[in-house]
Amino acid sequence: MNQAVGTSLAARLNRLVDFAPVLVALLLALLVSSVLLVALNADPLAAFGFMLEGAVGTENATAETLVKATPILFVGIGITIAFRGGMINIGGEGQMIAGALAGTTIALALGDARVPAEMAKAPGAFDLVIVASALGGGFLAGALYGGLAGFLKAYFGVNEILSTIMLNQIAVQMMNFLLNGLLLDPAVAGFNNIPKTARLVTAAQLPRLALPLGDPWVFARTRLHWGLVIAIALAVVIYIFLWRTSLGYRIRAVGENERAASYAGIHVKRQMMLAMFLAGGFAGLAGVVQVLGLQYRLQTDGSPAGFTAAAGFNGIVAALFGGLNPIGAIPASAFFGGLLVGAQKMQREIGVPASLITAVNGLIVVFVVSSEIFILQRSKRRVSLQETPLAPARASAKRADSPDPADEPTAEEAG
Amino acid sequence: MDLDDIFTASVFASAIRLATPYIFAALGETFAQRSGVLNLGVDGIMLMGAFGGFYAVHLAQTAGVMAEPLALLLGVLVALVVGGLMGLAMAFVSVTLQAKQGISGIGVYLFGLGLSELLFQQWVGTPKSVAGFPRISFPILTDIPILGEIFFHHNLLVYVAFALVPLSAFVLNRTTFGLMIRAVGQNPEAADAMGVSVTRVRYATTIIGGMLAGLAGASLSIALINLFQQNLTAGQGFIAVALVYFGGWRPLAVAAGAMLFSFVNALQLQIKVIGADIPSEFAVMAPYVITIVALVFATKRQEQPTALTKPYERGE
Fold this sequence. Notes:
The complex is a heterodimer. Chain A has helices at 2-18, 20-39, 44-56, 59-84, 92-114, 128-156, 160-180, 227-244, 246-256, 258-263, 268-295, 311-321, 326-350, 356-386, 392-401, 411-414. By secondary structure, chain A is mainly α. Chain A folds into 2 domains: 1-42 and 352-415, no CATH class; 65-350, no CATH class. Chain A starts with a helix and ends with a helix. The model of chain A is unreliable at 387-415 (pLDDT under 50). By secondary structure, chain B is an all-alpha fold. Chain B contains 13 helices and no strands. In chain B, helix 2 (9-34) crosses helix 11. The model of chain B has no long low-confidence stretch (mean pLDDT 90). Chains A and B meet through helix 7, helix 12 and helix 14 of A and helix 5, helix 11 and helix 13 of B.
């Protein structure tokens, strides 16, 4: 009994330590960006102050932070699955576009079919069939696009990093082609406008989200939408999937050690494809939710990140920052959403370009993966401790009741 | 539409010019990967090199303190140094700290993308052009019909890039340093046992790779396009990494891949120019589709360096 309590405490401590590199990375990134700001003749404290104010200073700022965080969280959940399965998915951008294209097409078509023209702009309308089909279609399109890279990796040995980067470029061009042609809003055809689709009927839109915490409700006058709730719910689902189901276990086993997984009878190729399929699906959801919840039409300025606003890349950063844990990705995404929104305020107030955030994101990635070595060395020490003659009984007793083979908490640490 | 309108001498000439940044970056990446380091940050390093080179030339030319060739040389030097420093950082992260290379490279990319844009906006502001490397006219040779335009009317960096191809092949295949690189990438334990410092070799190749990536960036900003703007490279560094796989880690094949890719690109531009009946989006897409298809066939055929992306740790 005591043993079990100790174990779960140790496991919990251990999980906390998993996030240690993240905190170290954050501090280092803060340090380096301060140096950068000083080099640019800006006062770091003022800059960070404006960023904080811009990110959470007002109700609307907080809502904008969460709005920015939503696609990052979707992508981040997907990237978490991919990385846990040993697949480095750089294709979030392309998969977002694939999902948005499919989801928007479905939403427009079903909107035409199910909603009479005079009801197109009816406020408060909501058609679950349209929204669910669009979300499902977006997921599937992104999943197939990501799955393609998984397939090429599994059966042709094509490095998934490279194929997903190529697929990103292809998706951007495909989007530009469709938005200038088949999907172009008939109302703007002929004008030299930003290429965009027609606007979704209200019934196809995700409703705005407000919390009954005051009068008027909190966030009632902001752009916050239900996409955030969907993303958070799915983060929990994927956490359970990865750590509490055998399919999730198989994906992680391939990621941990491909050869060992193969010897254990796991169909490695299938898990690779599944990991990329799911990762792509979540990026696809990110894309379609941007349309259904925020923009109400698919539009781009033609540049590579014109539609995605680089959420496909920022999702990678958030996934790493969340300790490759879907639950951890929730605060991580909120953090990066806040960085992006706050940086705009900083740029307005003291003229430091918001591209500082891209550089800082890069630093955070480098710092997080660099500090993993210290965790690794620590876990190696742990293993060697367990192998000493005095320890094995306790270690094995503990192992037996540990629900999670990946975490391997030890009694030595707790005591 | 006439085929003669598409396959013009100027298309071949521009294919050769467009290949320059790819050749620099991909050769550098070949060195790094042959020793076992996958540097995915090439694009970010290219951007930093492009900005560094551009800014040095821009400053020198606005101040007017030095002769034109010196200013350009300074630009190249700055690009090499900036690239080398970024390579050093990548080496520290992936060799000493043993970070996962695919991911840390993305970090380096984002860092270079953000920082080059930040410095550009802060120090330059609006896009400005510089007087870059001029095209060289050779006596007699440049005047040869067709061939003269294709081969003998380029800027200096084009020729440097193509000269580096056989040189790199020679270094990798025929010198002790090349042998050490290949040994470290193929079997680091054995190399270590023979007294080769795995760490030092990998630092060296990653720094060389960074310097060449920086030069690749400069070949855009002060020789090919002669300006800097946000995300100038637009992913060319990633293509360079793909070309290394495509070319099976051999400099000559890597350069051939770069030529093929640039040729498709030049064709695509030409198709746009003559207004052929192909949507321009598909033309832009074509090189990427071709790269994926090529990777499908190339990867099966080639053996990649055994220790690629695997950090080396001495056993007890």
